[in-house]
Amino acid sequence: MKEIILLKDGEIVLKGLNRRQFEDALKKNVKVVLAPLGRFEITSAQSTIMVRPLGDDIDLDEACERIAKVFGIVSFSRAAVCDEKTMESVLATIPEYLGKQLRAAKTFKVEAKRSDKKFPLKSPDICREAGGEVLKRFPHLKVDVHNPDVTVYVEIRDFGAYIHADPVRGAGGIPVGTGGKAAVLISGGIDSPVAAYMMAKRGLRLTAIHFASPPYTSPRAEDKVVRLLQKVSCYSGPITMLTVPFTKIQEKLRDDCPEELFTIIMRRLMMIISGRIARNGGCSALITGESLGQVASQTIGAMCCTDDAADMLVFRPLIGMDKQEIIDISYKIDTYRTSIEPYEDCCTVFTPRHPRTKPVLKFVREAQEKANFEPLIEEALQNLKITHITPED
Ligand code: ATP
Ligand code: MG
After folding, report:
1. What are φ and ψ of residue 43, in 5° steps?
2. 268, 326 Cβ separation under 8 angstroms
3. Please, which residues have CB within 8 angstroms of residue 218's CB and are 6 or more apart in sequence?
4. Which domain holds residue 126?
5. What is the Å distance from ligand 2's center to 308 Cα?
6. 159 shares its domain with 260
7. Which atom of ligand 1 lies closest to the CA of 185?
8. What tens digit of pLDDT does each residue of 223-276 get?
9. Is 0.90 surpassed by the pTM of this model?
10. Which of 223, 191, 170, 132 is nearest to 336 (CA)?
């Protein structure tokens, strides 16, 4: 039996004139994630995108798994294509395709959608006939229109008739790329991959910036970040990662700045460098995994000092979340186990014994200016390492 996948786009319905652009982006993103599995025809009509495999040996389970991670899809259904667009074919396809589910259920109902107005039966008639047939074939079943175990969907569309059971929930959000570009500051921790995922969900295409301080941080720490971004890229699409050589800057910080301000000045330098990389790469905002009050550098006072150094919009999607809420998402996107691997991040190099939780901006600025990091910042920007990340790497 031939099958297709029907995708319902969600928020994009709300976007009026932009709708076409959103739908095109969504179709393109679906095409990219499915390309390694074989050829597909992807078309759209009436706020549904239809994904038709062009070949019999295409793994549709894997296709559905991938589609479940594409933002902009509210729900999707794997559906049988009826041989003909007739009621006879519909009635024959239902038990053949949904027999297993119907045998295991106690109650059911039929829902019909008839977008091809030339089809001779109207929706209520389709429901009645299909329901009668199901009761005849599966006499143990009862109809329950309010809370059925299985809903049999019959969709009569321009190019065919399709049968499917309850739709599966999609990833939600907005198609990646329709909201512009942003650069996420990514560490190997739990928080920043979650922050990256959340902002990709709002339609942003991601660039990633990682600060590495070899030999204080190991190549395995950087490899861990690559593996985290591979997981994120299942949702966000391809990511360009820029690794910033941060060692000399951190050594200068240790040598030339007051110890209790190490962290806060380091975070300011991260913002300055990231801002320049982001602008160069056409990004309109930075993203961090900061959460208010989580550590000394994320108090409101410390964050005011960090923000002062950023000359572009900074998104902090985790700002109001508890650690457990963040961990729940990291499980969902499968980054948690990688995040807890124990490699040193540059943030834990030269940590002060008593970091200032209420730093005074004036003193922070003065200490930073006195040390004059500009030549080393320029040098770091000249020596960025570029890694292209896709889910298949
Ligand atoms: P995470 O779990 O993301 O590491 P965290 O709670 O450990 O977060 P910090 O180490 O203070 O918090 O870092 C706060 C944010 O700063 C991170 O979420 C990330 O956006 C950014 N950041 C920290 N270390 C790095 C790094 N080495 N490279 C790039 N960005 C970093
Ligand atoms: Mg960290």
Report:
1. -130, 165
2. no
3. 343, 344
4. 3-171
5. 20
6. no
7. 30
8. 999 999 999 999 999 999 999 999 999 999 999 999 999 999 999 999 999 999
9. yes
10. 191
Query: With contact defined as beta carbons under 8 Å apart, do 292 and 284 qualify?
Result: no
| Pair 266, 253: CB distance under 8 Å | yes
- Cα 190 to middle of ligand 2, angstroms: 7
Residues lining ion ligand 2 (Cβ < 5 A) are 187, 189, 345
- Domain total in the chain: 2
User: Which ligand approaches the C-alpha of residue 187 most closely?
Assistant: 1
Q: Are strands 205-212 and 181-185 parallel, antiparallel or unpaired?
A: parallel
CA distance 284 to 358: 29
Q: 184, 185, 270: which to mutate for ligand 1, most atoms within 8 A of CB?
A: 185
Ligand 1: atom nearest CA of 194 is 3
Atom of ligand 1 nearest to the CA of 212: 27
CB 33 within 8 A of CB 62: no
pLDDT digits over 30-53, tens only? 999 999 999 999 998 877 999 999
- Spell out which residues line ligand 1, taking CB within 6 angstroms: 185-187, 189-192, 209-211, 288-290, 294-295, 297, 345-347
Q: Which residue has the tokens 């652009």?
A: 21
* Burial (CB count within 10 angstroms: exposed 0-12, middle 13-18, buried 19+), residue 60: middle
In order, the DSSP letters of 77-109 are EEEEEPSSSSHHHHHHHHHHHHHHHHHH-SEEE
Domain boundary among 171, 197, 213: 171
Residue 261 shares a structural domain with residue 336 = yes
Distance 31 CA to ligand 1 centre (A): 33
CA pair distance 104, 120, nearest whole angstrom? 32
CA 272 / ligand 2 centre spacing (Å): 18
Query: pLDDT of 301-333, one tens digit each?
Result: 999 999 999 999 999 999 999 999 999 999 999
